[in-house]
Amino acid sequence: MDSTLVALLQADSRMSNSRLATAAGIAESTCIVRVRSLVTRGIITRFTTLVDPKALGLGLQALISVSIRSGARTQIPAFRDEIRAMPRVVQVFFLGGTEDFIIHLVARDSDDVRDFVLENLSANPAVASTRTSLVFEHHYNGLSSGK
């Protein structure tokens, strides 16, 4: 039942409790208790809105791989926090492997991406290298419990 509630809320997090209960086939009182439990247990961490970047004039998306210099490993937390705070950074992935980070960026155009890389990454003394890939399509499916 929890997986059904999660899937329904991922499709429409603004769904009323009444509609959610009907769609899940349970009583409204049961529904609200279960949703609150999902939040309390940390399964649902927040209710959010997905925005189409193109509608905001940000029609280009890029994934930028970043490697931190070996002598700058202590600067990783500060670098991560600085990048996460930037307004057009959609996601930041801290990785194990060849690269240390992947930054998901939305931008107006390729010049905008170039400026971001030059001003925020290449100019940063902690950064050893970057590699930029343009996103042709992006599909977000969410996550279900698999139950």
Description:
- There is one protein chain.
- The chain has 147 residues and is of the alpha+beta class.
- It is 36% helix and 21% strand.
- It has a 4-stranded antiparallel sheet, covered by helices on one side.
- Helix 2 packs across helix 3.
Task: Give average pLDDT, whole number.
Answer: 93
Biggest sheet statistics: 4 strands, antiparallel
Tell me the Rg in angstroms.
20 Å
Distance from first to last alpha carbon = 9 Å
Helical content stands at 25-40%
Strand order of the largest sheet: 2-3-1-4
Features:
147 residues, alpha+beta, 5 helices, 36% helix
Question: Summarize this, please?
Answer:
The protein has 147 residues and is of the alpha+beta class. It is built from five helices and four strands; from the N terminus they run H-H-H-E-H-E-E-H-E. It has a four-stranded antiparallel β-sheet with strand order 2-3-1-4, with helices on one face.
Blueprint of the fold:
Elements: H1 2-11, H2 17-24, H3 28-40, E1 60-68, H4 76-84, E2 89-94, E3 101-107, H5 110-122, E4 127-135
Antiparallel strand pairs: 1-3, 1-4, 2-3
